[in-house]
Structures are given as structure tokens and as C-alpha cells.
């Protein structure tokens, strides 16, 4: 399996960035996820982090090295994240539950599978065409869809969601897949900070015209610029699928050389909402040194 | 009286299989040595030894840290690791590369490529002392910064900012390659802005937001410093520091002296990079690269009579 991935998260004019993102992969399967912790409820950043950690932990457990049923996995892992949030709120005796949106995508075999809850989106661009986009679980998008059936008078605020993780009711999770991928397909996960101020047409055009390493920073900057001083946080994670036959470009991640047991992740598996201790102990120092040396080895291999 | 600086390791000492030849430099964070590896290749070894927190008597190997200074010492160690971690991920000819990282003498060491050459600062000083109307040729400046920006772009792609770009941190090797040095101030700030310690800055090259507690740092902060470096390459001296500029901005005026010596485009790019408002600068290295690479026909505009007059007046008032 080969793919390139590029991710950027930038704080807008908000006090903190409650967006989280990350990806993990085994030799034959990859999981990409993004969550946008919700303001107006406590600890949005914890909610986003917990949702991703739950996804990553379940992926690590189940992808051996492929997921047997990716669609079912996505649904279950997202619901499991929801239960983690409820448990967390109970444990900490919070009056309100932390809440988050989530969008997650699995690349496996030659196919993509994805699921989402809330208004974080997935875009799939092939050539210069938008092939797929998730529909937000917001009243405004619902209204657009329903307007042909039931006319509704006033416009809803796009920010009001009817479902998310951590809400009292059971979250609505939409799953899509399998969708057969072609080499060069680009997938983009983003928080509403991006699509709130940058149109689908521009997102598509950027992904079509530039490599993800140029398109993603460009889009994020556009969103921050358009958002102005009060801009929302903008988080974007994009990947480009490369078929196995593609020549080695040197860029991107190739999982071919990984053993069956290997699991790599950018999602930190720190304990539930615990702030990482500031002081380093000896084990931590040793681990840091080991990690740095592994990174050095990887970079020098890439070079040669 | 200030307390003595910790002593560097004596020449000949072997740490982690590297034999120390001599001390190259010492900063607040530690000491950089020239050393030789087992195959007798030259390397640079950076030792974590914060001068304000650690003590070491001459001849001793292990630094002593007073118990009350331990937490800060460990916190600094974290930054040292961050520098290592950042550099380890980047493999680019324009960014200094890390070869090894190890622990000994109860502190840590980072082994880097030893580069032979001089800093851009040295070149600027030598060139300006020749007292020609140009410090560097325009084509030299363009190709030099094209190289540096390639490296900086990779740094930003790894969600890091350098935050201390200045001619003294740009190294020109004897093979004529430009390399970005000293990531001691680099922080992974694009992803976690919460627990971020504001690094030290160099006047003249530090963007105005570096001076403010609440200033949002970003690629544009490094881009300001790049602009200041280009300025120094044209003028031979660093620009005024940004607090001074906020009070009275003479940048446009001093750049106008360079008109007809350097192309309008290069002067405009410099001014663009050095906008006091972060949002008015190029927002990414990419957009700056595009502008610098635009090798259209260079236009030179002479100063008009009134502009020359203004310059003379400015000189008079500066003298009085």
C-alpha cells in the first residue's frame, strides 16, 4: 500500500485549538481521522483527543494487518468513542459531557471506506472532479436536502448540529464504502474551519491542481485569511493514493516493507485526558533518545 | 559577580565513541565541539549544558545541577530533545543534519555534520568592507535565498518554525551550499501553541510579533527574518529592529538608497517580507519562492530629484 499524507492544524482567532487529527497504519490498512471538539461544552479538546485515541486503539487491535469489515469497524469505533466520552464525564463528575465531531477514513486493498458524525467533512477528488463529499449532520444541510420535500421557512445556522459524539442521544454515524480508488485520488478530511470559508469548488480545484503538500497549506491559509481575526481553527488532513505499480517517488509512505505486526501511529495514546507530566524521568529520556535515533535512521535511509 | 560558566570537556575526552578535538562554540544551551568519530570523520557534537543551570569544574566530566534547578534543567532537556527530534525528521541538504543522539555523563549529546565554510555573516562583513556599491550581486542573493527557502519550506512542512534566522545562522560551506543552522529556538508551534515558551530573538531579524506575548507566530515570522537577511545582503548591515520601526519606519527610505543598484523587484520583495503587519507578508515560503524565482526582465528605477533631496535631508538630520 502506498500513499502520501499531509496534515496541518492552525489556530484561528480562538483561544484554543480543539481540533485533533492523525493517522495510523499497518502494512495493509490505513486509518485517517479528524475530530473537532465542540465549544459550548466542557473540554472540547479532550473530546476530540479521546475520539481519535479510541479509533486508533481499536484499529491497532483489529487491523491484523487488515480489518475484516472496515465499514463495521468504523461504525463501532466511532460509537466506542462516544461511550468513552460518556464514561469520562461520569468519572470526572462533569455536569455536561465533552462533545466532538469526527470523520474517519480507512484505506485498504484498493478501496476507501469512511464514516462521519457531525460537520467535519471528507472530500474525494479524482482528476479535477469532486467524486464524493460527506453531508453534514447540521440542520442547514438537512434543510437543503429536505427543502424539496418539506418547505421550511427560515435558514438554520450552519453551526447547529443535530448529532455528535458525547450528546445524550445515540450519535448518527453515516458510513460509505467500499469505493474503488484509482491512483492519484486525493482524499481530504477537514474541520468546518476550512469549508466554512472556502467553497467546495475551490477545495476541489486546489486538490486537482496542486500536490497535497502545496494544496493543503494553501487551503488552510485561505481559510484563515477569509476567516479574518475571528477565524475558526482550521485543520486539514489529506492523502493521495498511489497504486502499487507506481514508481517509487521517494515521497509518501510505503507500507510494503513493514512486517505483519507493525503498527505506526501519529495519534498519541496518552491516558484519558491526563495532561502529560512535564518532568522527564529516566525512562522517558531513554525513550526520547531511542525515538530520535530511529528518526535519524529513517531519514538517512530515505536519503540513500 | 556572575557565576562561572561550566567548563567545556577537555580536548581528547571520548564521549559516546567520539573524541573531542576542541570547543567550537558555546551558547546558553550548551557547548559545540569539533570531534572525530571511530572512522576518524569530523563531526560537530553539541552537549546539553545550560550555563545558567549546570555547573562543571574544569577537568570534570559530569555536570552538577542543584536540586532546586532540576525541574528547569529537565524542561530545557525537553527542548533539546525537540531540536533533535525536529532535525532528525528532516533530511534536506539545506538543513543541518543530525547523525546521532546519545546520553553520557548524565547529560545528552547531539552529533551533527561538521560543516566547513563560513557563515553568511562572515561573508557580509568581508564583502561590505570592500566598500563597493553592491555588497552581493543580485543573482547571488537570489540563488542563495532560493536554496535557503527550499530548506525552510521543509522545516515548515514539519510544522516547525526556525524563529532565529539570521546571517549568523546561515552557513555557506566550502562546496558553496547554504545550510540552515541552530534550531535551538525552533519549536513545533504550528500544532501546539498552548504550552509554548517564547524563544529569544535577535534584534533586526526578529519580527514584531516575536516581541509580543500574544503575537501569533507562523511561517510569516520566519519570512520576516528572511527579508531582513536579504536586506543585510544588499545593505551590508542589519535593518533597524522592529520596535524602532514601529516608532518611526525608515525601511522604505533606506531601501530607496538601493534603487538602481538592485532591481525594483528584489527591493519590493524585501519590503514585502518585512511588512510590520504579519498578514501583509508572504504567508508561506512557497509564495515567496514563486516571487523570487520570477526571473522577468529586471527593472531599475533611478531616484527622482525630490527623492534624492529627501535622502540628503534625512542624512543631515541623522547627523545632527
Automatic annotation (TrEMBL), chain B:
<keyword id="KW-0067">ATP-binding</keyword>
<keyword id="KW-0547">Nucleotide-binding</keyword>
<dbReference type="Pfam" id="PF00069">
    <property type="entry name" value="Pkinase"/>
</dbReference>
<dbReference type="InterPro" id="IPR000719">
    <property type="entry name" value="Prot_kinase_dom"/>
</dbReference>
<dbReference type="GO" id="GO:0016020">
    <property type="term" value="C:membrane"/>
</dbReference>
<dbReference type="GO" id="GO:0004674">
    <property type="term" value="F:protein serine/threonine kinase activity"/>
</dbReference>
<dbReference type="GO" id="GO:0000407">
    <property type="term" value="C:phagophore assembly site"/>
</dbReference>
<dbReference type="GO" id="GO:0005524">
    <property type="term" value="F:ATP binding"/>
</dbReference>
<dbReference type="GO" id="GO:0005776">
    <property type="term" value="C:autophagosome"/>
</dbReference>
<protein>
    <submittedName>
        <fullName>Serine/threonine protein kinase</fullName>
    </submittedName>
</protein>
<keyword id="KW-0418">Kinase</keyword>
<feature type="domain" description="Protein kinase">
    <location>
        <begin position="18"/>
        <end position="293"/>
    </location>
</feature>
<dbReference type="InterPro" id="IPR008271">
    <property type="entry name" value="Ser/Thr_kinase_AS"/>
</dbReference>
<keyword id="KW-0723">Serine/threonine-protein kinase</keyword>
<keyword id="KW-0808">Transferase</keyword>
<dbReference type="GO" id="GO:0005829">
    <property type="term" value="C:cytosol"/>
</dbReference>
<dbReference type="InterPro" id="IPR045269">
    <property type="entry name" value="Atg1-like"/>
</dbReference>
<dbReference type="InterPro" id="IPR011009">
    <property type="entry name" value="Kinase-like_dom_sf"/>
</dbReference>
Amino acid at each position: 500500500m502506498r500513499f502520501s499524507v499531509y496534515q496541518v492544524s492552525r489556530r484561528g482567532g480562538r483561544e484554543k485549538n480543539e481540533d485533533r487529527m492523525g493517522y495510523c497504519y499497518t502494512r495493509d490498512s490505513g486509518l485517517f481521522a479528524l475530530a473537532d471538539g465542540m465549544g459550548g461544552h466542557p473540554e472540547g479538546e479532550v473530546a476530540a483527543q479521546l475520539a481519535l485515541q479510541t479509533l486508533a486503539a481499536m484499529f491497532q487491535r483489529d487491523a491484523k494487518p487488515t480489518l475484516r469489515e472496515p465499514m463495521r469497524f468504523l461504525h463501532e469505533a466511532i460509537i466506542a468513542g462516544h461511550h468513552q466520552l460518556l464514561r469520562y464525564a461520569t468519572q470526572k463528575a462533569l455536569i455536561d459531557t465533552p462533545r466532538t465531531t469526527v470523520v474517519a477514513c480507512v484505506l485498504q486493498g484498493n478501496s476507501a471506506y469512511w464514516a462521519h458524525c457531525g460537520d467535519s467533512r471528507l472530500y474525494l477528488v479524482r482528476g479535477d472532479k469532486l467524486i464524493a463529499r460527506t453531508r453534514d449532520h447540521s440542520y442547514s444541510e438537512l434543510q437543503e436536502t429536505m427543502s424539496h420535500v418539506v418547505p421550511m421557512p427560515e435558514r438554520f445556522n450552519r453551526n447547529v448540529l443535530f448529532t455528535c459524539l458525547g450528546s445524550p442521544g445515540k450519535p448518527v454515524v453515516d458510513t460509505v464504502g467500499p469505493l474503488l480508488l484509482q491512483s492519484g485520488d486525493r482524499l481530504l478530511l477537514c474541520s468546518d474551519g476550512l469549508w466554512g470559508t472556502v467553497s467546495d469548488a475551490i477545495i476541489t480545484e486546489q486538490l486537482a491542481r496542486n500536490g497535497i503538500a502545496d494544496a493543503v497549506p494553501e487551503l488552510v491559509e485561505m481559510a484563515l485569511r477569509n476567516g479574518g481575526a475571528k477565524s475558526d481553527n482550521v485543520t486539514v488532513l489529506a492523502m493521495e493514493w498511489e497504486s502499487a505499480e507506481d514508481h517509487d517517488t521517494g515521497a509518501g509512505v510505503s507500507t510494503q516493507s513493514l512486517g505483519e505486526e507493525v503498527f505506526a501511529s501519529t495519534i498519541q495514546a496518552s491516558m484519558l485526558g491526563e495532561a502529560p507530566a512535564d518532568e522527564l524521568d529516566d525512562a522517558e529520556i531513554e525513550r526520547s533518545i531511542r525515538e530520535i535515533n530511529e528518526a535519524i535512521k529513517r531519514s538517512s535511509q530515505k536519503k540513500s | 559577580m556572575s557565576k562561572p560558566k561550566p567548563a567545556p570537556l577537555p580536548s581528547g575526552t571520548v564521549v559516546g565513541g567520539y573524541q573531542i578535538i576542541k570547543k567550537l562554540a558555546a551558547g546558553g544551551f550548551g557547548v559545540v565541539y569539533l570531534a572525530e568519530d571511530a572512522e576518524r570523520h569530523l563531526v560537530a557534537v553539541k552537549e546539553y549544558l545550560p550555563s545558567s543551570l549546570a555547573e562543571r569544574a574544569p577537568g570534570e566530566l559530569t555536570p552538577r545541577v542543584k536540586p532546586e534547578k532540576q525541574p528547569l534543567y529537565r524542561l530545557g532537556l525537553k527542548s533539546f530533545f525537540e531540536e533533535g527530534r525536529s532535525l532528525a525528521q528532516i533530511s534536506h541538504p539545506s538543513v543541518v543534519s543530525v547523525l546521532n543522539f546519545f546520553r553520557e555523563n548524565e547529560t545528552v549529546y547531539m552529533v551533527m555534520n561538521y560543516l566547513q565554510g563560513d557563515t553568511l555573516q562572515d561573508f557580509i562583513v568581508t564583502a561590505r568592507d570592500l566598500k563597493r556599491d553592491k555588497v552581493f550581486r543580485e543573482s547571488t542573493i537570489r540563488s542563495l535565498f532560493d536554496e535557503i527557502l527550499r530548506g525552510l519550506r521543509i522545516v515548515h512542512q514539519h510544522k516547525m518554525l526556525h524563529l532565529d534566522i539570521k546571517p549568523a545562522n546561515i552557513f555557506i560551506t566550502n562546496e558553496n551550499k547554504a545550510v540552515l543552522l541552530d534550531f535551538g529556538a525552533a519549536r513545533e508551534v504550528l500544532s501546539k501553541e498552548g504550552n509554548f515558551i517564547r524563544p529569544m530573538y535577535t534584534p533586526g531579524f526578529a519580527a514584531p510579533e516575536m516581541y509580543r506575548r500574544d503575537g501569533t507566530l507562523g511561517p510569516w515570522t520566519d519570512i520576516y527574518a528572511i527579508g531582513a537577511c536579504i536586506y543585510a545582503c544588499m545593505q551590508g548591515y542589519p535593518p533597524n529592529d522592529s520596535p524602532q520601526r514601529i516608532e518611526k519606519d525608515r525601511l522604505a527610505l533606506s531601501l530607496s538608497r538601493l534603487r538602481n543598484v538592485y532591481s525594483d523587484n528584489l527591493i519590493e520583495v524585501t519590503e514585502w517580507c518585512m511588512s510590520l503587519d504579519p498578514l501583509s507578508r508572504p504567508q508561506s515560503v512557497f509564495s515567496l519562492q514563486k516571487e523570487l524565482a520570477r526571473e522577468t526582465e529586471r527593472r531599475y528605477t533611478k531616484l527622482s530629484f525630490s527623492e534624492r533631496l529627501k535622502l540628503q535631508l534625512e542624512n543631515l538630520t541623522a547627523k545632527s
